[in-house]
Design goal:
single chain, alpha/beta, Nucleotidyltransferase, domain 5, five-stranded mixed sheet, 7 helices, globular
Length: 207
């Protein structure tokens, strides 16, 4: 009696924006993977006013009210991200893929002050929102029991070049070729998410 067909290993890559994220899934051998999925994930609840830019919405509010609002937005965004990532994992499994990792693009890692300090500075409001939606994606990957490979966006190509043993120009060319084969959309969002997925796939295959 023959067993079930072996699932092909795949990994997700995600790049966050305010209230949404670009997702690309890569599968196959780490030396030459292929894109098998790309989606736009919603990470903010349209039913909550201002949830796409919650720190902007809370600017000028009394501190306790702002903290409660932000906690509610964060909890809802975590749930939406977790549901979206789980849906991708399940859909890929039905198509014969096993998701074994998730690459998340991170910011600069700048430390943030307490909430009062954030809401008093417009640049910090932007920084906090970026961190919130990136953290939501990390949380979703972890809750879906995926090893999460977090990499600062500005360090993505150098880290990928070292790990994949391919020069940066070659990586850029390979990523661009994938887009030509697939057709649009293949913007900077998809390119960087694809490379994050590739890096996560390579990391998972070394374990």
């Amino acid at each position: 009696m023959s067993g079930r067909p072996k699932l092909i290993r795949a990994a997700l890559g995600v790049r966050a924006h305010s209230g949404w994220a670009a997702l690309v899934a890569m599968a196959g051998p780490p030396r030459k993977p292929a894109v098998v999925e790309r989606r736009r994930l919603q990470t903010a609840d349209a039913a909550i006013p201002g949830s796409k830019q919650p720190y902007h919405a809370a600017e000028g509010w009394e501190l306790k009210k702002a903290a409660q609002y932000l906690q509610g937005c964060t909890a809802r965004s975590r749930l939406l991200a977790r549901q979206a990532v789980r849906s991708v994992i399940n859909d890929l499994k039905r198509r014969g893929y096993e998701v074994v990792g998730c690459g998340v693009l991170l910011g600069s890692g700048r430390s943030l002050p307490a909430l009062a300090g954030i809401l008093a500075s417009h640049p910090l409001i932007h920084t906090a929102e970026g961190q919130l939606f990136r953290d939501v994606l990390v949380h979703a990957g972890q809750r879906c029991r995926l090893p999460v490979t977090g990499v600062k966006e500005r360090e993505l190509f150098p880290q990928a070049a070292a790990r994949l043993r391919l020069p940066v120009p070659k990586l850029q060319s390979r990523i661009a070729e994938m887009g030509r084969d697939l057709g649009p959309p293949w913007t900077q969002d998809q390119k960087l998410a694809a490379l994050a997925a590739w890096l996560a796939l390579a990391s998972a295959n070394k374990k």
